[in-house]
Design a protein that fits this description.
This protein has two domains: about 5-80, no CATH class; about 95-175, no CATH class. About 20% of the residues lie in helices and about 30% in strands. The protein has helices at about 30-35, 45-55, 70-80, 165-175; strands spanning about 10-15, 20-30, 40-45, 60, 95-105, 110-120, 125-130, 135-140, 175. The protein has a five-stranded mixed β-sheet with strand order 5-6-7-8-9, with helices on one face. The longest helix has 11 residues, at about 70-80. It is elongated.
């Protein structure tokens, strides 16, 4: 698709890594173009957030620029590596996605399979933890101290992790509320 240069807009984007984030202004033709160009970012649309960011001294980039600001350059390179892989963007236009992801026990968390209901912004809506000892726990945003995006829906690897809504709902119904930390 060919766009005229003057059709670009400035978008506020965030790479949220859980306990903080990196922010930039990016010029692009659309929010989707931003997401197709940079991995693991979200386009911020809330007017109050955009107004607040106007006072920050953020780096600005253009999606077509040959070089990107520090931090954004890695996210650009990551997306470029994704673009031609099978499954790239296969889940990007979904309102809700269901995934099964394995956690191998890093960071002192016991190994488990996680079934996740993910919204269009990459954030968890609900989650089921299938522990290796057979326990099944469920949780939702009320149970989490913060809820950053956990997946980039353009990531080509996610297609192989997709499960059906029926599989998720069956596990959700069998699970009990996670009260281990109470």
């Amino acid at each position: 698709m060919i766009f005229e240069e003057n059709a670009k807009q400035r978008f506020l984007i965030l790479h949220d890594y859980g306990m903080g984030g990196s922010w930039w202004w990016v010029r692009a033709h659309s929010a989707r173009e931003v997401l197709e160009t940079f991995a693991e970012v979200e386009v911020i649309e809330a007017p109050e957030e955009i107004e607040r960011a106007e006072g920050w001294n953020l780096d600005e980039a253009d999606v077509d620029a040959p070089t990107m600001p520090a931090g954004l350059d890695c996210l650009h390179a990551q997306r470029q590596a994704h673009r031609h892989l099978p499954g790239f963007g296969a889940l990007a236009d979904r309102t809700i996605v269901y995934l099964r992801r394995r956690w191998d026990g890093d960071d002192g968390v016991d190994p488990a399979d996680y079934l996740m209901e993910i919204g269009s912004d990459g954030r968890r809506l609900r989650q089921v933890e299938l522990t290796d000892n057979g326990d099944i726990f469920k949780s939702d945003p009320d149970d989490w101290p913060f809820n950053p995006p956990v997946v980039d829906l353009f990531d080509p690897e996610l297609k192989d992790q997709e499960i059906s809504s029926e599989d998720f709902e069956t596990a959700w119904q069998r699970a009990r509320k996670d009260n281990r930390d109470l």
